[in-house]
Specification:
Belongs to the CdaR family. It holds the Pfam family HTH_30. InterPro entries: CdaR-like_regulators, CdaR_GGDEF, GAF-like_dom_sf, GGDEF_dom, PucR_C-HTH_dom, PucR_C-HTH_sf, PucR_dom. This is Purine catabolism regulatory protein. The protein is an alpha/beta fold and 547 residues long. It has 4 domains: 109 residues, HprK N-terminal domain-like (Udp-n-acetylmuramoylalanyl-d-glutamate--2,6- Diaminopimelate Ligase, Chain: A, domain 1, 3-Layer(aba) Sandwich), CATH 3.40.1390; 141 residues, GAF domain (Beta-Lactamase), CATH 3.30.450; 169 residues, Reverse transcriptase/Diguanylate cyclase domain (Alpha-Beta Plaits); 85 residues, PucR C-terminal helix-turn-helix domain (Arc Repressor Mutant, subunit A), CATH 1.10.10. Helix content is 50%, strand content 15%. The strands form 3 sheets. The chain has a 5-stranded mixed beta sheet with strand order 1-5-4-3-2, sandwiched between helices. A 5-stranded antiparallel beta sheet has the order 7-6-10-9-8, with helices on one face. β3, α2 and β4 form a beta-alpha-beta unit. It is elongated, with a radius of gyration of 36 Å.
């Protein structure tokens, strides 16, 4: 246990000393003892110092007296011991007032006591306590390291730390989700406080990768330290103050050791996770490129990852829209946050699939998440479409609700029998996103079968032919001056030639509609009463929407 101000007041050599201010601060820990007889001390003060002085540097100077106590308080010093007799008959009221204000212990020493009478025994006591702390610290480090070497996970580390201190132990990931919680957190507010600290404030407090003490609303403290892997924060470890046991110096060291050991465990898990992700990516690429000798072979490879590809699946693709802009708008622009967003999307989808009793087969690919959605018990194409659309719309609402400022689009392909059908289903889901966003000009959920004639157009691999056809039919109306005329004819065709409905949708008079149609016909040199011309114009307008 560390030496506190209250402890030294009980020592024999301090029998004539008097605590005159800062009674509430006697629990401050003393880490070293020093003498101050100069006015400017701020530059060399360190935490935990107990300072002895005659007051020579601040005699007859209330401003200097106030400044020195403030500097000691800001350095989180343990206290000030001031000798009376030579320069002061009594400790100045300014110093005592500051001591009370900051709960900073101010002790009056009698003129008869020498510095050496205090320094030597205190140094011996501090060194003895430090040796004890080092011994306990080493034991904690050894026990926690042993857990990792024996293959224990994060839960086991938390259990071991709890046995060694013992205090409630909380381990969280970078998003402050609970990974392990051991010991009774008697008041719910304690746990609530630990989770409620804003991420920006938490990172600012922990910028030096050190253990930080945070006071809870209920008056109890906790220690928290970041878990650093490769320079990035992967999580946090906290220990809580107990009602019957205050935080001690050994707790700081225990948290430091635990943070290091947990970082090693997370690094190991990260390596295992990356290996699994690499295997998933390789398998996905082989599936989508038909790069396998037989369905039986690829199904066996999938089984090693826990995938049962003998069931019926269709493909759903979730795409993060404009990820670059999202990244640039982040308060903290780091890759770890982007990866955390992707993992959060994956977690939401996985949970909803589990709730539907479906095997969660999910693969991250660049800015997308690919889902093999189990449609085993859906007997018709219509059932597949309705169920997959309902699921996709539901998870999109959850993602947008839970991840601020993120925009996503979801594409859905059809179900095709056998493993080889996944390739076609994925292709359709990807095209549904690509074309759906161009047609509807917004983020949303798109099923391939809802694309209508666009399904035919996107199957044409030669986009140059499509561009030539569009230019041939609409050429004179493709510049800015023809935009209004193109919109008018598009609305007219979508209303099956009903001019009254088209005029109402465009919010113009029917005569204005007739004028635009006539002008468009003259501009293109085509008779709009000819069905072949109307078909050509309709196709050309649809082509304009996808290229």
């Amino acid at each position: 246990m560390a030496i506190k101000v209250a402890d030294i007041l009980k020592f024999d050599f301090m029998q004539e000393a008097k605590l005159l201010a800062g009674q509430a601060g006697v629990s401050r820990e003393i880490k070293y003892v020093d003498i101050i007889e100069v006015p400017d001390v701020k530059g060399w003060l360190k935490e935990g110092g107990l300072f002895l002085t005659t007051g020579y540097s601040m005699k007859d100077n209330p401003a200097a007296q106030k400044k020195i106590v403030k500097s000691l308080q800001e350095a989180n010093s343990a206290g000030l011991c001031m000798k009376k007799g030579r320069y002061f008959d009594s400790i100045p009221e300014v110093i005592l007032a500051c001591g009370e204000k900051y709960n900073f212990p101010v002790i009056e020493l009698p003129a008869t006591i020498s510095y050496v009478d205090i320094l030597l025994p205190l140094i011996d006591e501090i060194l003895g306590k430090e040796a004890y702390l080092l011994k306990r610290s080493e034991k904690i480090h050894q026990e926690l390291t042993k857990v990792v070497l024996m293959g224990g996970g994060i839960d086991h580390i938390a259990q071991t730390l709890y046995q060694l201190i013992p205090r409630p132990v909380l381990i969280q990931n970078a998003e402050q989700e609970i990974l392990a919680l051991v010991g009774e957190v008697r008041e719910k507010n304690q746990l609530k406080d630990s989770l409620a600290l804003p991420m920006r404030k938490l990172k600012a407090r922990l910028n030096n990768n050190k253990v930080v003490r945070i006071e809870g609303e209920n008056g109890r403290s906790r220690l928290i330290a970041p878990i650093i892997v490769a320079g990035n924060i992967y999580g946090y470890i906290s220990v809580f103050e107990s009602p019957d046991r205050k935080i001690e110096a050994i707790d700081y060291r225990a948290v430091e050791h635990a943070a290091t050991v947990i970082a090693l465990e997370m690094l190991k898990e990260k390596g295992q996770s990356e290996t699994e992700k690499r295997m998933q990516t390789e398998l996905l690429n082989d599936l989508l490129q038909n790069n396998y000798s037989s369905a039986k072979t690829i199904a066996k490879r999938a089984s090693y990852l826990g995938w049962d590809l003998t069931k019926d699946y269709l493909t759903i693709v979730i795409d993060i829209d404009d990820l670059e802009s999202y990244y640039l708008n982040l308060e903290y622009q780091d890759e770890s946050h982007i990866q955390a967003v992707k993992e959060e999307i994956k977690k939401i989808v996985r949970w909803e699939m589990v709730m539907e009793n479906k095997d969660p087969i999910l693969i991250n690919q660049s800015d997308s998440l690919i889902i093999f959605y189990n449609c085993q018990n859906l007997k018709t194409k219509q059932q597949n479409q309705q169920k997959s659309l309902s699921f996709a719309r539901h998870i999109r609402r959850l993602i947008v609700k839970n991840i601020p400022d993120i925009m996503i689009s979801i594409g859905i392909g059809n179900f095709y029998p056998e493993i080889k059908g996944l390739r076609q289903s994925y292709k359709e889901a990807s095209q549904a996103i690509k074309i759906g966003k161009k047609i509807y000009r917004e983020n949303g959920v798109y099923h391939y079968d809802e694309l209508g004639i666009f399904k035919i157009l996107v199957e044409l691999d030669n986009y140059d032919v499509l561009k030539e056809f569009r230019q041939e039919i609409l050429g004179p109306a493709l510049d800015e001056s023809g935009a209004e005329l193109l919109e008018t004819v598009d609305v007219l065709l979508n209303n099956l030639g009903n001019k009254t409905q088209a005029a109402a949708e465009l919010n113009i008079h029917r005569n204005s509609l007739n004028y635009r149609i006539k002008k468009f016909s003259e501009l293109l040199g085509r008779d709009l009463n000819n069905s072949d011309n109307l078909l050509d114009i309709y196709l050309a307008i649809k082509i304009s929407q996808i290229i």
